Amino acid sequence: VTGSLLIEGAQVVSSQGTRIQDVFVDGQRIQVLGDPGTLQVRADRTLDARGLYLLPGVIDAHVHFRQPGYEWKEDLASGSRAAAAGGVTTFFDMPNTSPPTVHLSDLRDKKELAAKHSWVNYNFFLGATPHNLPVLSEPMNIPGIKVFMGSSTGDLLIDDPQVLRQIFMVSAHLIAVHAEDEATLVANQKQLKLTGTMEDHLRIRTPEAALKASSLAAEMAIHFKKRLHILHLTTAQEVAWLKQLKSPWITSEVCPHHVFLSAPKGVARLNTLAKVNPPIRSEEHQMALWAALKSGTIQTMASDHAPHTRAEKERPYPEAPSGMPGVETMLPLMLQQVHQNEISLNQVVGWLCEKPAEIFRVQGRGKIQEGYQADLVLVDMETEWVIQGTQLQSKAGWTAFEGWKVKGRPVMTFVNGTCVYRNGTMVSMPAGQEARIGGPS
Ligand SMILES: [Zn+2]
């Protein structure tokens, strides 16, 4: 039983501004907000939040929680704990599990698991294969269809433009793409004199491969009038192209590791721990991504939390798998960026909460507004701490941001009105619900 709660005097943040308000939560929902001391409500409990910031819970639209099939890397319980600790109250998980999420029954199985084990709200992408086209047109409560245009972890590769075309033709949902052109990757692998080091990763997965796939997907989205969300943008070329394209059918995402790290300097020490697809590129690309986020050419940030064990990641290149954990460090890294006056807290709420809700048509979440679900994060902007992999909730036990000093940290996370995380500890019970997605595209 959640009862009612009055959160008093927090700095309430939206993309539009920040103001001190009282927030009254009754059961699962935000009932009413108002100036301090003005709400005529009788609350079961009150929480003095003066000096703290209240943000809408983050909607992380790109995670790999590895269940079913790879539970030694992560599962829905541990992944969602990491989410809650990082201020993430809703996640959308990717279909490259084992079995992959490609049939309605796979989707149902995952949702049943999440209903039991997830500490935060959830939903799941369905993966496209050359063999499940009829499923893609079915009405389903999902954020979208995931298409891997370039090979990555798992076996959901779509490298035939004709199949891609059919996917765009029949899909009744938003299409999210991993955009790297497989033919280019394969050709590079064959033609280049490879060194067997991490440098190969950048030489194989070129900006040209990314741009080629992004623009092919965009062409089809525009032709078939389907919504396209380009995942983890990494290149200055794609940013420049998107800026002039300005299509209402196309949105995009950037990931923390691509804006907080750059090659070669920033990843040298990390070696294969920094192996991700698409790769972490040079500072020139990194700066272009920040600029695109600030200008609105890129609308959202998501973690692409893709954990592997440290032992797996320490295998030599190229055997070390691609991907790194990130769901728990995304918001703290952005808070640190706020302290450095690079960005504002209002922008963070826009990129991590409001825009994902808008793009994926998430019902009743992503804002602190009357009638919305009480998915809330209370942030102490003055706490200084050091990111340490062993202290994080993810099973990975490591992070690319090991030793980074950051200022600002979620101190309480509420999911549907229930506090599930408080000062470093999980409290209460898994309270996640299936996130409702608005009508078909
Ligand atoms: Zn991913």
Q: What structural class do helix, strand and pairing data support?
A: alpha/beta
Bound heterogens, unique: zinc ion
Count of β-strands: 18
Name the overall outline: globular
* Largest beta-sheet details: 9 strands, mixed
Contiguous low-pLDDT stretches (5 residues minimum) are none
What portion of residues is helical?
25-40%
Indicate the proportion of strand residues: 15-25%
Estimated radius of gyration: 21 Å
Mean pLDDT: 96
Distance between the termini: 36 Å
Number of helices: 13
Q: What would you note in describing this structure?
A:
The protein is α/β, with parallel strands linked by helices and 441 residues long. The protein has helices spanning 76-85, 104-117, 133-136, 161-170, 182-191, 198-204, 207-224, 236-245, 256-260, 283-295, 310-313, 330-339, 345-359; strands at 4-13, 18-26, 29-34, 45-48, 53-56, 58-63, 88-93, 121-124, 126-127, 145-148, 175-178, 228-230, 250-254, 300-301, 376-386, 405-415, 418-422, 425-426. The structure holds zinc ion.
